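FIELD: query
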Amino acid sequence: MSSGIDHALGQAVERIRAAAADGTVLRIRGGGSKDFYGEAPRGEVLDTRALAGIASYEPSELVVTVRAGTPLAELEAALAEKGQCLAFEPPHFAADATVGGMVAAGLAGPSRASVGNVRDYVLGATLVNGRGEVLSFGGQVMKNVAGYDVSRVLAGSLGTLGLIAEVSLKVLPVPPAEATLEFACDQADALRLLNEWGGRPLPLNASCWFEYAGAGALYLRLRGAVAAVEAACAHLGGERKDKERAAADWQSLREQSLPWFDTAAGPDALWRLSVPQTAPVLGLEAFGAPLVEWHGGQRWY
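FIELD: result
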């Protein structure tokens, strides 16, 4: 670590120790892009943004070690330069989202059902616990943990286990080919098709079904080798969407900025249900038609 990072971590440690001694409640915060998620924020702000920068990056090893206050956009840009990415597509919700907040929130985007969740990509972590002790867990390879894997438990912990100072993440190459297909169908047919396709050797990556102006549409994103994607498009049919327009739509789904989400009003108007992918239509018509993603496993009402 550089002297600046050492100093920033030392300050955080001293702040936590002082808070533990006098009973002060601390609120760990990076960019604040996910303040809405979980319980209402409380306590004095412990800002993580001084803990910034990519500590190490080995593209050939598919691993990056990055400090928690690093802007998520900065990390993704560095990976993109090497043709790599965070395969789970973490949502930002704001331009100043940080890597620490990404891990603490544990939220993944449209491809989650196909590639895994945030915790599946956390290889190791350094954190500061409530006593001000600096602890390290895991490492920079997949097979480095015997027993309880604390580093992966940090994903989704919302800061309750300590201040995340640094994480090592597995990254993946950007798939060489991508295509989005649209199918006109109702929700029941969409779920049937997704379950049927899930049992085939198809390069499925993401899916989304919703109603617009009373008509249902299923969007299916394929990613993988060029030959596999082209063969799947020819086999499945549907309408192939413009690549740039489709990319913008998937990005909007990732950031929950699709027009469908604008129909919600009030803090309790939007509900996320996690169900088995094989679950049928839930019969909640009183709440209107849902938005279904993760191949049927996540349904928004």
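FIELD: remark
The first helix runs from residue 3 to 22.
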